[in-house]
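Risk mitigation, structural track. In case the binding assays with 6-O-phosphono-alpha-D-fructofuranose fail to produce interpretable data, a predicted complex structure has been prepared as a fallback.
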Amino acid sequence: MSSRISLTRYLVEQQREHGHIPAQLRLLIEVVARACKSIAISVNKGALGEVLGSAASENVQGEIQKKLDIISNEVLIEANEWGGHLAAMASEEMDSIHVVPNRYPQGEYLLLFDPLDGSSNIDVNVSIGTIFSVLRKVNNQRGISEEDFLQPGKQQAAAGYCVYGPQTTLVLTVGTGVAMFTLDRETGSWVLTEDQVQIPEDTKEFAINMSNMRHWDAPVKRYIDECLQGKEGPRGKDFNMRWVASMVADVHRILTRGGVFMYPWDKRDPDKPGKLRLMYEANPMAFLVEQAGGLATNGRQRIMDIVPGKLHERVAVALGSKNEVQRVTDYHLSPLA
Ligand code: P6P
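Fallback model:
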């Protein structure tokens, strides 16, 4: 069996080859990876761990928090506070940023995360995941504030997710391609199982919540309708549909075999650009998808070019196989006469 490459060795070799991973960033990634292992253990216990069901609280999004949402958030906060690699953290589950307490040294990075994405799937034993995004602290003059986080996704230093599914898999980019690490439960180590992941430019598989069709705007309706017409229609091929309702699981499938994922604007909430969050869902996934040769737009512009106005900003998302996302974007930019 070829020698197994651990996460640590991968990061050391990326640093050697690209001079791309300063020690603080390497520590950050290893700490987050270790926190994901702890979360995986809690998730895998399910009913045996008394961690299923809802907590008696809501998050800033107005969503009922699951017990595991809160547990996962606390695991990530506690794992990252003391290391000296971070200045502050932001989470889907917290109204405002969490600045590293004065008793610990402050570092160069900002960490954002959705500690447990897809949590509506927890109680029904369907894959869920942790999504994280890493930014650099750009203003060294003063204390950290929310404004320091409001950077476009193209400024991310690293991004990734951990999917808690049949396998527990960590997927990571530091800007030199996408690598996948599978958790070896016997040794507790992350083992490199895919490197330089590439998304096929074409696909026959789309992921969207079809029950929202009546709420979509015309370009999205046109794109999906053409897919549904199959080989007799303008696309000249039949399409398949998947919707896990867990972004991590849908994106992992797309990174693995191609596809297009969409959560578009819809008229139920016309003032909201979309359901998904820019900073800790769309941006990290967009970084990964682009690093794997795909595209990620909000229907009109590259997601990673969007300058955020607020921490919990939402965005419409179309990401995945390059030629399909380009088509969706073209339909938005040059609608039928
Ligand atoms: P719906 C999970 O709540 C999430 O944020 C994403 O992981 C997922 O893609 C989407 O929402 C599912 O939304 O409306 O289909 O339940």
